[in-house]
Amino acid sequence: MDGSATGTGIGQPVRRREDPRLLTGKGRYSDDVNLPGQAYAVMVRSPHAHALIRSIDAAAARAMPGVLAVLTAEDVTADGLRPLPHISNSHPADIQIKNRDGSPTIVPQHQAIGSPEICHVGEIVAAEARDAAEQVVVEYETLPAVVRALAAAEPGAPTVRRNFPNVILDGDVGDPVATEAAFARAAHVVQLDTWVPRVTGVPMEPRAAVGEYDPQSDRYTLHAGAGGAVSPRRDLAMVLGVPPEQARVVMQDVGGNFGTRGSFSAEFALVVWAAKRLGRPVKWTSDRQEYFVADYQARDLTVTAELALDAEGKFLAMRGSNLVNQGAYALAFGPLNKGVEIMSSIYHVPAVHFRGRAALTNTIPTRPYRSSGRPEVMFVMERLIDLAARQTGIDRIELRRRNLVPESMMPYTNPFGMVYDSGAYHRVMERVLWLADWNEFPARRQESRRHGKCRGIGVANYVDTATGAPREKAEVTVKPEGPVGGTVEVVIGTTSQGQGHETSFAQLMTEWLGVPIDSVKLVTGDTDRVSVGGGAHSGRALRLGSIVMFNSSNQIIEKGLKIASHVLEAAIEDIAFAGGRFEVKGTDRAIGIFEAARAALERPDLPEELRGPLQGVSDETVNLAAFPYGCHVCEVEVDPETGEIAIVRYTAVDDCGRAVNPMIVHGQVHGGIVQGVGQALWEQCVYEAGTGQVLSGSFMDYAMPKADMVPFFDTELSEVPSPTHPLGIRPAGEGGTTPALGVVINAVVDALAEFGVTHIEMPATPERVWRAINGNGNGRSV
């Protein structure tokens, strides 16, 4: 029987195979790795956001009992360590903003240990092999610090980095002439000036790393959880200045990523480098307080946007400016590029013109975070539409209906040049409105008023552009030994940080090869086994992994048919493969796939080309983007006396093309919603202006959403197959987050409309809401 028939194939809600192991403490995370004779590293970090190091006195620290070494930038220079590699080429399907004056984009180098210029609080200034950090005396000359991108972009602003301009990228996209002409004939123009503040990823597992060096093979090994293994191996080799084959990265279980672990970290290079210098393994583990000044952060986008409409409410054009805060180092321009390219969302906007800029500041570097760049711009578009509805008097749902791209226009090229392959946008919006009982909302509002609460409802459509590293490889081998009669080993470059790959990937093998799900063994995260692959980011893991696994499975079936032809003494065209068996049609003569694998290994009478492992290998580069989409509805109650917000209802319909495991997809949507809601209502990284000190440096200061702060979600999946994927799959892991910022704030503003509030900035804390109600009436906060 195939996987679908046994309830374990594609489309089945199979419980996650990995959960019993993880929930009973049998997982193996980075901090679980301990090697004989290991030393323990502590990073000495700068207390200043911008300063010059005048001297470092480590004599007292080196003299302490048990201290093996104190390593500084001088040692880094002496050993020839290279800067951390960050900026990489964008995906061919993404736009790439370039400087409008034609000059190349020049970014500052990121050394593993900063010196002489320190550019953010928490930057590493020394590393030790045991805790003597307080004995290291560093003399600093403090310099002015800038924390907001808008302030850094002002003429005459203090210099954030010596020898670099504050704004390192300044370009534009779209058609300025057509856009200006459209605005000139517009009946209505609405404008939104907003700041999508900074957040941090807060994965469940704090970062840790163990480095070791083998002098006999001259080989370095890093044990660390990250977004993938292949990319960190490349980066580690580049920092050490050695060929890639001299570096190995091993990652097993990873407790969360969300993108903030997607760039190479200085600590990863330092523990491996220190291991060679000391002649013993070196381990470093971050604590939560260190996390808030040591791990990369995200978002932080300043936007000015305008939307032009005709008298009937049809969108004519958009224009504006997006300014992203890169922090002290430019890790990636993806959030800027990927945001700008879909500013128009899934609405038909004939003309656009946007300026895109990236600014350096004296803050922790930012990088892509769940649905990189897209939640910010979906927030802007959905807020503009609600503002336009209020200004024009056109119902906000009707306004969306008039401007959503219809199915008849698919494939649709948006005004930035992105080609949406397919989408039933109207159908999805109407479905979620029905599920959310949108038309019955006035009655619920009246009920809330009887209890002294203000109730609001919001809607937000979205599209996500999923690209990521375009190359992926799978090696699938059928082995005749194993606890359930055999094993299907899948070696693949994607890695899981909680997405359920051990289950969903096994379901694919069950579907195609007809093997028991427990026979599938996934091998990832070790560059001695995995040579190619892009990890898990931008919704690429299952989307690309399914393609190479499908191709490999077909190769196995093709070879298996030939083996079965010899074993069963029948013509290939007379043999059918189904349910894991090669069967001569119309007879009871058959062999299973594991028997075929054994025959290939043991039977000497087979042709040479059929002997050996029953294996399929596929290495593919996919340059097409994918475009998941959906629509969410949120209802809130606001206490006007305290400003406290309660989300009382949340409904979502997300299109994933085809769900391999609906249960896992629903879980991904739920988690994504909470991350978006967290930013809308609670989360924010706060820096003190002028000094760059991190004021949100612990969970006492950084508010995280908890289970009792959100309702049970009503989620539904739409499955309109994508025509650009052989299985119709669209990614699903980022859809929950992408519309959440906009839908929550739309609901809050709707609740506060009776007080004259037209907009409120994120996070919409009780204090900010209270001030909006009792203050200047527009709810705008800086």
Topology:
Layout: H1 3-6, H2 19-23, E1 39-40, E2 42-45, E3 51-57, H3 59-63, E4 70-72, H4 73-79, E5 117-118, E6 124-128, E7 137-142, H5 149-152, E8 167-174, H6 176-184, E9 188-200, E10 208-214, E11 219-224, H7 230-240, E12 247-250, H8 266-278, E13 282-285, H9 288-294, E14 297-309, E15 315-327, H10 334-340, E16 351-360, H11 374-392, H12 396-403, E17 412-413, E18 419-420, H13 425-435, H14 441-450, E19 454-463, E20 471-479, E21 487-492, H15 501-513, E22 520-523, H16 541-568, E23 575-578, E24 581-584, E25 590-592, H17 593-602, E26 614-621, E27 629-638, E28 645-655, H18 662-681, E29 714-718, H19 740-752, H20 766-774
Parallel strand pairs: 1-13, 11-12, 15-16, 21-22, 28-29
Antiparallel strand pairs: 2-6, 3-5, 3-7, 4-6, 8-16, 9-14, 10-11, 10-13, 14-15, 17-18, 19-27, 20-21, 20-26, 23-24, 24-25, 27-28
Helix pairs in contact: 10-11, 11-19, 15-16, 16-17, 18-19
